[in-house]
Every structure is written in structure tokens, then in C-alpha cells.
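Dear Dr. L.,

I hope this message finds you well. Following up on our conversation about the binding site, I have prepared a predicted three-dimensional model of the protein together with zinc ion. For your records, I am including the exact sequence and ligand specification that went into the calculation, followed by the C-alpha cells. Please feel free to forward this to your student if that is useful.
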Amino acid sequence: MEPFVKFTGASGLMEQPDNVVIRKMSDMAAAYADSQKARQWIENGDPVVYEMLEALVPQAAGELMFCTTRINPGTVGREYFMTKGHYHEDPTTAEIYYTVSGRGILLAETKDRRHVALEMRKGSIIHVEPGWAHRTYNTGEEPLVFLAVYPANAGHDYRTIEQEGFAHTVVKGDNGPVVVKTSTLR
Ligand code: PAN
Ligand code: ZN
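The resulting structure of the complex is given below.
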């Protein structure tokens, strides 16, 4: 493969991506604590929660994958629209998140349930340590758009999150976003 360039349009999303993944509410309803509210969203048009536009590179050690994600604004009950979240299958792989526009929170958790909530706003650069599951929330009124770069051989483990969830989540409080224990919402 030769060096190549991708451009981002006014929205900050990658133009002419090699792959597009669209996640609607029906693709991830179980991720939200309030399943009834998630079902209402599905019955009322099943909105796109987020989309991911990727450039494909060989899945080999040393290669870097990169993709832009847009999460739409909204809440399911009090919980903000979010990504599915995952561990990297290779627990030695880190990731960089660069926020292009909007407001959000990246929640990272370890298997022993340590957690950190990191602010995402235009220009913020987040380093996700290897071994930490990560999920992003749109806590603003506009789309949250960011670029993520990670080792192409990282792999994505979604199943652990689908089965065990995150111990914490981010909800809309009276004075902005608040991190709470997921168990308090169910
Ligand atoms: C990101 C995420 C992207 C969508 O590129 O894959 O924002 O989130 P989910 O993959 O959890 O649906 C990343 O962390 N890649 O490793
Ligand atoms: Zn990742």
C-alpha cells in the first residue's frame, strides 16, 4: 500500500471513506439503562445514534487505523446518546481521540472497574491507555465529531460490554453531565 491522504469536509467527517458503519437505536438498545425509553425511540423512527467512517489499512502490526465518528445529540431517559463501547482484543493497544467539534465525555473503564471520565471538546486530545474499555457520549446539543487513531491489529471486543456493560454511565444532570453508577438507573 502507498501513502495516501483523506480529507474531512465541513462536518469534520472523512470524505470518501472506505467503510461506513451506521448504528441506529435498534442496533444498541440494550446498551441503555432505560429499555422502555430505548424502545420508544425505535418506535418513533429508529434514529441513527452514531456513524463511523473509516479508512481501511492492512490489519498488521505497525499499521494505524483511523476513523471519524459522529454521535448525534439526544438522550435515552437521562442517559446521553453514546457509542457501543469496547475493549481492544489486543490489550496492549492504545488509542488517540481528537475532538473536531461538539461536546462529550469519553468514559474509560478497566476490568476491575476503575473508571475515568474525560472531557471532549473541540481540540481535546485523549490518550486511552491499553487495557481500558472506552465509550463516548455526546453531552451537547450539536453532533459530537472526533477522529480516532489506533493500531490496525487491535481488534474490537464488543461482546464483553454487551454482556457485562460498563459499571458507570453518563447522564444529564441539572447542571450538566454527571457520571453515575449504571446500577442506580436500572
Ligand atoms: C473508535 C470507535 C468508534 C465507534 O473508532 O470504534 O468511535 O465506537 P464503537 O466501536 O464502540 O461502536 C475506536 O475506539 N476504535 O478503536
Ligand atoms: Zn477503540
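In brief: The CA atoms of residues 73 and 141 lie 5 Å apart.

With kind regards,
A. P.
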